[in-house]
Amino acid sequence: MQDFLKQLPKAELHLHIEGTLEPELMMALAERNGVTLPYASVEEVRRAYDFADLSAFLELYFLGMSVLRHEADFEDLAMDYLRRAHAEGVVHVEMHVDPQAHLARGVPLETVLNGLERARERAARELDISTALILAFLRDKPVEEAMQLLEAVEPYRERFAAVGLDSAELGHPPGRFAEVFQCARQMGLACVAHAGEEGPPAYIREALEQLQVCRVDHGVRCLEDPGLVETLRERGIVLTVCPLSNVSLKVVERLAEHPLPRLLEAGLRLTLSSDDPAYFGGGMLDNFAACREAFGWGEATFRQLAANAIDEAFMTEARRSELQARLADC
Ligand code: HPA
Ligand SMILES: [Zn+2]
């Protein structure tokens, strides 16, 4: 089964590139850039990864990324992850990036975006991994800041497939960003948003109605509202579910209690992703294997999840056909 899961062509639709920063690279970049971290060793960094909730995680996530300063750091970060993903049978990766978090530290937009662009080109050439970039807005920051960021990325418009919404969810409903998302749509960008991870089903509804998202990141709390489940099913909206993330951030206590089997039974279109693999205990293959272990799913279920991701990905139709053919062959 592990062999099957590894060779299954997996597309990852929900990943924060800053969340792929492994402790080893964090320490190496801290040294290279003269950044002081409150950790003496890689082991100490790992020991700190015991999160009470999303906010507790975000504190360390923003601290960790303080070692990223130069274009080469962003290139190394992304290449490091894409190489690991390649070894796990991942063929396509869509990465959220949080420019506001870097701008606030004085790192210019072009440094972040040029570094990631170099990695994306190399991944396509060296690893045959296709990628897409998602411009994420920090939902706990002012709407005006998001609008300014959207204007600032205009010269880089072609590098992005979509806009997204992340960071602390509770108390930050998506509807506040309706105008920003409307402008993004006018620029030809697709829309996705985190909703229903820690936040209530009403946030998922808002993301659908006010942000007009084509996918919902997480969305696992939709089950609390049967009418919403019906809407999601009717419209074929994909939920990008991140099993190990949900355990790590205490959305569920144990994977065996995760709503994934009930979401499937409800006829929803699901995909599996790793979210922040360096912080949540594993990449794509670990997430797939953990689901196999917890739910006993057979090959057909994993095939369907992999197919949903390929069908729903931001990629050229030629690439989609190629990956669909690879999936049919495996
Ligand atoms: O898991 C997450 N949830 C919300 N925002 C985030 N930003 C990085 N990771 C996450
Ligand atoms: Zn996420």
TrEMBL record:
Which cofactors are reported in the record for this sequence?
A: Zn(2+)
InterPro entries reported in the protein's UniProt record? A_deaminase_dom, ADE, Ado/ade_deaminase, Metal_Hydrolase
Q: What enzyme category does the UniProt record give?
A: hydrolase
What Pfam families would the database entry show?
A_deaminase
Which UniProt key words apply to this protein?
Hydrolase, Metal-binding, Nucleotide metabolism, Zinc
Reaction(s) this enzyme catalyzes, per UniProt: adenine + H2O + H(+) = hypoxanthine + NH4(+)
**List of residues binding Zn(2+):** H14, H16, H194, D275
**UniProt family annotation:** Belongs to the metallo-dependent hydrolases superfamily. Adenosine and AMP deaminases family. Adenine deaminase type 2 subfamily.
**What is this protein for, i.e. what is its function?**
Catalyzes the hydrolytic deamination of adenine to hypoxanthine. Plays an important role in the purine salvage pathway and in nitrogen catabolism.
- Protein's UniProt name: Adenine deaminase
